[in-house]
């Protein structure tokens, strides 16, 4: 089973992911961007304020393709539980927001649908996605506004995209209130994961 953690920067994904790792020592815990050289290329792009939006999308997508073949598919084939801190929905939400704010016309296509469409032929959709729901301002404050994505206006557009994704597939998403304490959020996510494994 593939469970993904999604949400804005600073929503608490990594905090929850680390707590889950202690509870499920036999599971595969992974993340995007990865620490492969593809992920290093992504990190360079994150640090570049003038990165080309399409080039950045394809760097993240290359990292995802490698993540699938190197980590996610082998672990799923072994019957492992896989928990990923960010996954394809991050591309759908973030790169769609970047493209929408750019002057790239995409031949009239909707940016979110376009980013989904390039994943569709090769990706492996999550079985369930836990969405840590937090307002953009608190998210940017918690994240420390250290990179170009961690700005309130941009994160508001990203959040709108996450809402579109949830509306399109409500059965895949579990929304968790991320304004609560780290202990309360972690306990709720642990409960959700336990339920998902049992059913
Ligand atoms: N529920 C929470 N309430 C308040 N602060 C939190 C909470 N969860 C995480 N934090 C803090 O917010 C910051 C970002 O958390 P992190 O888990 O790295 O988020 P993400 O991986 O989503 O960016 C860290 O300083 C962390 O200690
Ligand atoms: C995986 C992924 C991350 N990102 C962005 C979100 C983050 O600002 C940045 C790095 O991701 P990450 O290290 O997960 O940041 P955080 O822990 O703050 O959430 O990359 C995308 O724009 N698209 C993607 O597909």
TrEMBL record:
Family to which the UniProt record says this protein belongs: Belongs to the thymidylate kinase family.
Lineage: Archaea, Methanobacteriati, Methanobacteriota, Stenosarchaea group, Halobacteria
Residues noted as binding ATP in the record, renumbered to the chain: 7-14
InterPro entries recorded: P-loop_NTPase (IPR027417), Thymidylate_kin-like_dom (IPR039430), Thymidylate_kinase (IPR018094)
Domain Thymidylate kinase-like span(s) in chain numbering: 5-188
Gene assigned in the entry: tmk
Keywords: ATP-binding, Kinase, Nucleotide biosynthesis, Nucleotide-binding, Transferase
Catalyses which reaction(s): dTMP + ATP = dTDP + ADP
Protein's UniProt name: Probable thymidylate kinase
EC number of the protein: 2.7.4.9
UniProt keyword Kinase present: yes
Single Gene Ontology BP annotation: dTTP biosynthetic process
């Amino acid at each position: 089973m593939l469970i993904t953690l999604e949400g804005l920067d600073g929503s608490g994904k990594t905090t929850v992911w680390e707590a889950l790792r202690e509870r499920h020592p036999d599971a595969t815990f992974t993340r995007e961007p990865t620490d492969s050289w593809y992920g290093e290329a992504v990190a360079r792009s994150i640090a570049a304020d003038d990165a080309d939006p399409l080039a950045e999308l394809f760097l993240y997508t290359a990292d995802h393709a490698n993540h699938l073949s190197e980590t996610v598919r082998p672990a799923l084939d072994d019957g492992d539980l896989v928990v990923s801190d960010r996954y394809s929905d991050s591309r759908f939400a973030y790169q769609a927001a970047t493209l929408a704010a750019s002057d790239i016309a995409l031949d009239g296509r909707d940016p979110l649908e376009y980013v989904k469409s390039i994943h569709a032929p090769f990706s492996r959709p999550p079985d369930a996605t836990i969405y840590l729901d937090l307002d953009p301002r608190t998210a940017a404050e918690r994240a420390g506004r250290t990179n170009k994505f961690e700005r309130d206006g941009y994160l508001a557009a990203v959040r709108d995209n996450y809402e579109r994704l949830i509306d399109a597939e409500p059965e895949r998403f579990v929304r968790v209130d991320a304004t609560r304490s780290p202990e309360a959020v972690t306990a709720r996510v642990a409960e959700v994961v336990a339920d998902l494994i049992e059913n």
